[in-house]
Write a structure and sequence with these properties.
alpha+beta, 2 domains, four-stranded mixed beta sheet, 7 helices, eight-stranded antiparallel beta sheet
Length: about 290
């Protein structure tokens, strides 16, 4: 690819448009870019500060040659409704058209200055941040020691690596599954976080379920703890056989089951619920 402007490489625009012409957030736009849709940055108008509009298309890099004309058409349709003056079709143009018609002359064609550049597939990412730890939890996204945004926000506020962006999207999808799980009446709300250690390329999702023993006397409690430990060890082994990394960790009056993976795609709650019922663990499951 030839040299492009910094705003193009960062996918930094004043307006973001979907392939259908709707205004979308930067995060939504980057999802399309990173998924492989041909996308373009349009610099509209002359002067030092042109209007920057980022447009994605229905054309995919793996199957199509490009989509510049589609991007321009999408922009122009949006501009006619929202910013007609940007494409030379504002009130002054309409006046010129009417004057030409009244004079029996050919109406002028609308004109505007346009520079268009292809947005790279990894736009908006910063390889330098690989040297900082990346961490996602329910109320914050942290890069190094700095909180850079809300995990459900439309814009994290800093450039992420491509892998971090994908990890954030996986965390969001998994959190939505957890929310649906709670709506189904489950007793516990698992803790979900994601992390990528400094210097590492890929991150991991981590799910934590807590199991505790009710206070019903020392002897009964000790027996329950021993049963709980053995049952969770069996469950961890079963999950490991399915490709997950599972660890049982002792906490006050119980244990945490920690399940970790670089890829939670295809994970179903039956993978947990069925064996938990088999090992009679549901009575010990509590909210962390």
């Amino acid at each position: 690819m030839s040299q492009i402007y910094e705003d193009t490489a960062d996918a930094k625009a004043a307006v973001y448009l979907s392939s259908g012409g709707s205004e979308i957030s930067r995060m939504e736009f980057l999802e399309s870019v990173h998924d492989g849709q041909w996308s373009y940055m349009l610099y509209v108008g002359g002067g030092y500060v042109p209007l920057t509009v980022a447009v994605t298309t229905d054309s995919h890099r793996d199957y199509h040659g490009g989509g510049e004309s589609d991007a321009v058409s999408t922009f122009e349709e949006w501009a006619r409704d929202e910013r007609p003056e940007e494409i030379g079709e504002g009130p002054d143009y309409e006046k010129e058209v009417q004057e030409a018609i009244a004079a029996g002359e050919e109406p002028p064609e609308p004109e505007y200055e346009l520079h268009i550049e292809e947005i790279p597939r990894h736009a908006g990412t910063d390889p330098a941040s690989i040297n900082q730890r990346f961490f996602i939890e329910a109320d914050a996204v942290t890069l190094g020691e700095k909180v850079v945004g809300d995990p459900f926000g439309s814009d994290i506020g800093t450039k992420l690596t491509y892998a971090d962006f994908q990890l954030l999207r996986a965390w969001r999808e998994m959190q939505e599954r957890l929310d649906n799980w709670m709506k189904e009446g489950k007793r516990s709300r698992p803790t979900l976080y994601a992390r990528r250690e400094a210097g590492m390329k890929d991150g991991r999702l981590v799910l934590v379920l807590r199991f505790t023993v009710p206070r019903r006397g020392k002897r009964w409690g000790e027996g329950s703890l021993e049963y709980l430990r053995g049952a969770l060890a069996k469950l961890a082994g079963e999950l490991a056989g399915e490709g997950w990394e599972a660890e049982v960790r002792k906490v006050t009056a119980g244990y945490d089951l920690i399940i970790e993976s670089a890829d939670f795609d295809g994970f179903h709650w039956t993978s947990l619920e069925v064996p938990m019922r088999v090992y009679k663990l549901t009575d010990f499951l509590v909210e962390p």
